[in-house]
Amino acid sequence: MKLGLDPAVVRRARDLAARAAEPVIEMARTHTTVSVERAVLRLAGVTGADADGIPWVNRIVDAVRDQAGLEHGVALPFFAAANWRSMRFELPTGAERDRALARARAAVGAGVARIDRNRADRDRLLARHGDPGQPWIYLIVATGDIHEDIPQAQAAAREGADVIAVIRSTGQSLLDYVPEGATRHGYAGTYATQENFRLMRAALDEVSAELGRYVRLTNYASGLCMPEIATLAGLERLDMMLNDCMYGIIFRDINPRRTFVDQRFSRQIHARAGIVINTGEDNYLTTADAIDAAHTVVASQLLNERFGHEAGLTDRQLGLGHAFEINPRIPDSFRLELAHAQLVRELFPDAPLKYMPPTKHMTGNIFAGYLLDAFFNLAGVMTGQSIILIGMMTEGIHTPWLSDRDLALENVRYVRRAAGDLSEDFTPGPFIRERAARVLSETVDLLHRVADDGLLNAIADGVFGVTKRPADGGRGLDGVIEKAAGYVNPATEILEAAP
Amino acid sequence: MTVETMKQIIRPYGDTTGDAMIQVSFTLPVPHGPRAELAALQLAGKMGLDPASVVHSKAMGPDFTFFIVYGKATHLIDYAGIVAPEGREFELLTPAQVNTAVKAGLGRRLVVVGACIGTDAHTVGIDAILNVKGFAGEKGLEYYREIEVHNMGAQVAVGDLVAKAKAVDADAVLVSQVVTQKSAHIHNTKQMAAAFTEAYPTSLTGGLGRPLLIVGGPRFDTVTPSDLGVDRIFGKGTTPGEVASYLVHALVRE
């Protein structure tokens, strides 16, 4: 540990994060959502959509809600129905309840078993093809058409990408259903669907075998369908998932309560599936100043860590996010970046940290941008970051061209080759040590306030990302239901059972 | 020589006046090799570079080649024939000046409704203009005492935007569009403008009988406000102060 952080201060930060998170965790334990219930049905093997393209899981959950209420969960009414396609549901009692419960547990258990098999398959393929060394190079494809994404993703893998992220169509986060089938018409991204997941994972398996290196696949679990998308990712062996505790609230105006309930279930699924989550703290720095708001990033990381641990994620599944977004015109900007990056590295020594490239200060001067990206890559290797998203010199101009991606990979390959083990020789001096200690102490102050005022109030006050989101505002609150005493969720039963 | 015939011929400048040197980079969908370089040189020639030389070529996978080409531009530019575009049509005011002007000119708060419309979920632009935090060191419109801000957030349906504008009797509607795939920003904006025209059939122009329609986004550089049916377009890097000053210029008559 190079920064000489005071272990008592670090402990205090974690204690405060736990205290701030606790009431929200309690709220998440005692509530369910329409998307959590739909995820249960997906685990039980319900697929497909009606003639209008509305997924059956939505039709069923809406019908159960109307006829029997969701406070007991969807599982009992669904598995008590003789023919669910009749869309007539009621809450079973007595022996009928016992039979429905047994059927529900068996069906959901089969879904969880499939997730378990996928996890074992991943381990087997990592052993067979080889796990690339860190930092992993993370590249994005985003054509809108899964059949265009596939060759681009395979080409990116051949050029050195270790992780492929398929950006979702803009607006999917606000859809309260998951579209069906292979899709070819997204906006600025490709819809996350079970079939798209399956097609892309198969394509990357093919290229992993060719390259002798397991190429990971990432998608996004944020938005109104977090639990369902997490479930589909587990069923189709995705490897990483964007899953932040506050991103949807702040940047997509999704209701805070809905987000925290959905998030807990989705992370329980990720934990079981061996999926590494990526959190979204980098986004705060696109609206807030990267120096002034550095402590909000660390505070959010500690909250994400606490929520993640509570949901069963291990440290090795916590891809906490941060970014290189300090204004390059500020003196010592690179030293400040190193201080922030090293601080995060030391606070979370076992987490596969995800480091995001500059976007805010990419001006259209592609030559200066290429230099800034090289400094970002250098900061990444110097501070031992785990996952490096590759910066594009044309950031903010257009979606990356083939040549932009190729030049970006050339940049990171050079830095890795030239300075790969530089972290061995990097010993921070007083400037960096003092800056890191200061950010940590500001983090403690902030978490103190958040723990005292309540996390939901802090979010309402605009503490994170300088955007105010009241606890009862935003989309999706009507999909949150308080659990009744007899609530049954066979998925949660399995996921929360002692390992 | 008369004024009409006075010319000022310019060429690109490398390191000597008149050398006309420029650089370009591009990708061709052909395998790397000598034949690909000839294709790149032919393209450079057709672009008006003569002579041209390929200083760098690199295979990008089996099917594509990236080139960096230097060449002498054969085209001439008559700088005398280029008219400087008009500058900002309004005076830049401080928040205090904006507040004073609104109070004196309108005698009430100026009402602004903002939203990202269509599928666009990127609230960064509208938030930079409206939120107190603002952008580039300038506070957003929420900070202005005499401006009443209703920020509707992301993915607002056009019908909801019109209804909100009517409900709060908006003086101006600000719409931000970031996503440009398949020209979504253009389509969404035109649709929005058409809806306002329909909803305010008796309006004469923006600010007279209907709210002023303002659209912002990084990629509106190829269109004019009249193409879209809006009153003003703001591009990348616009600050809240510019928007506030424009609102005063367009809406507050002294």
TrEMBL record, chain A:
D-Lysine 5,6-aminomutase alpha subunit domain span: 3-493
MF terms in GO: catalytic activity; cobalamin binding
Xref: SUPFAM superfamilies: Cobalamin (vitamin B12)-dependent enzymes
InterPro entries for the chain: Cbl-dep_enz_cat, Lys-AminoMut_A, Lys-AminoMut_asu_sf
Classification via Pfam families: Lys-AminoMut_A
Annotated Gene3D superfamilies: D-Lysine 5,6-aminomutase alpha subunit
Domain of life: Bacteria
Protein name in UniProt: Lysine 2,3-aminomutase
Species assigned in the record: Herbidospora solisilvae
Species lineage: Bacteria, Bacillati, Actinomycetota, Actinomycetes, Streptosporangiales
From TrEMBL, chain B:
Protein name: Lysine 2,3-aminomutase
A Pfam family that the UniProt record links to this protein: OAM_dimer
B12-binding domain span: 109-254
Coiled-coil intervals: none
Organism: Herbidospora solisilvae
Gene3D superfamilies linked: Cobalamin-binding domain, D-lysine 5,6-aminomutase beta subunit KamE, N-terminal domain
GO function terms (MF aspect): cobalamin binding; metal ion binding; protein dimerization activity
